[in-house]
Amino acid sequence: MNTIQLKKYHGLGNDYLVLDPNKNKIHLQDRKIEMICRRNFGVGADGLLYGPLTDEDKIEVKIYNSDGSEAEISGNGVRIFAKYLLDEGYVNEKKFTLTTRSGDVEIEFMDEEGTTMKVSMGKADFSTKKIPLISELGEIVNQRMKFKDAYYNTTCLSLGNPHCIIMAEEVTSQKAKELGPYVEGASCFLNRINMQLLEVQDRDNIKIEIYERGSGYTLASGTSACAAAAAAYRMGLINSKVMVHMQGGSLCVEIMEDMEIFMTGTVGTVGTFTLAEDFFA
Ligand SMILES: N[C@@H](CCC[C@H](N)C(=O)O)C(=O)O
């Protein structure tokens, strides 16, 4: 009998399932990921983390959105996966390196239980080629862009994955759900995009609402928090260390001179799930 076991965690309500290939035999396909992540019909999650995949001394994770598409990186995803690695005894050091499709991230556990972590997320890159985004401009920083039927002051950047940050008058879940699909699928974004509606509360606090590429509306997102902070910092609106407030909770984001970003936040454990034998039938 081949049963599939998944462990579920969340980063501020952004929930992920961990599927460990060392403990499960599965031919992973986007259709199966979509079925597992589907709310009401499956276990339900914003995404799935597949690993650890080990190559020599590297520990790698593959990150999938709930529609089955593969993402380069996820901020909550890497914290969650680090917690899984600690829980299952794959790592026991205070600091270690995790490899994602967008490169290596450094994880540091900040407490004994491994529930709070500081992560080096790489550098924010504003080049339109890197995002990739079709534009005559080399960068889109606080430029007017039209989505659906209105113009918005917009900043775009890559943090390994693509982000579009919109300075919005209305930063609500309703507005994110309404505008998100238009922004995610806008034809100028060659690989689709993650959208954040941004409100700068003061120089130390920002608030965002998120619509994720491949997962839709989510309660939190690590890369979205880092991207929104990087955009606000680039526009001169905030200090280099800021709290990013989202529906599911807050993350601390620090931006270095060279635009290297550090994110600190928690992970919660939900439990273990076993799929029914005929789940994919
Ligand atoms: N939840 C994430 C972001 C996941 C990937 C994203 N949807 C994409 O396709 O780039 C986070 O915490 O960063």
TrEMBL record:
Gene Ontology BP annotations: lysine biosynthetic process via diaminopimelate
Protein EC: 5.1.1.7
What's the protein called, per UniProt? Diaminopimelate epimerase
Gene name, please? dapF
Q: Which UniProt keywords apply?
A: Amino-acid biosynthesis, Cytoplasm, Isomerase, Lysine biosynthesis
Tell me the domain of life. Bacteria
Main localisation: cytoplasm
Q: What family, per the record?
A: Belongs to the diaminopimelate epimerase family.
Upper lineage: Bacteria, Bacillati, Bacillota, Clostridia, Lachnospirales
The pathway noted for it is: Amino-acid biosynthesis; L-lysine biosynthesis via DAP pathway; DL-2,6-diaminopimelate from LL-2,6-diaminopimelate: step 1/1
Function, as annotated: Catalyzes the stereoinversion of LL-2,6-diaminopimelate (L,L-DAP) to meso-diaminopimelate (meso-DAP), a precursor of L-lysine and an essential component of the bacterial peptidoglycan.
Q: Which GO terms describe its molecular function?
A: diaminopimelate epimerase activity
- Give the matching InterPro entries: DAP_epimerase_DapF (IPR001653)
The annotated subunit structure for this chain is:
Homodimer.
Catalytic activity, reaction form: (2S,6S)-2,6-diaminopimelate = meso-2,6-diaminopimelate
What are the record's GO terms for cellular component? cytosol
Sites where the protein binds substrate: N14, N65, G75, N76, N161, N194, E212, R213, G222, T223
Oxidoreductase as UniProt keyword: no
Q: Where in the cell is it found?
A: Cytoplasm
Q: Which Pfam families match?
A: DAP_epimerase
According to UniProt, residues marked as the site described as Could be important to modulate the pK values of the two catalytic cysteine residues are: H163, E212
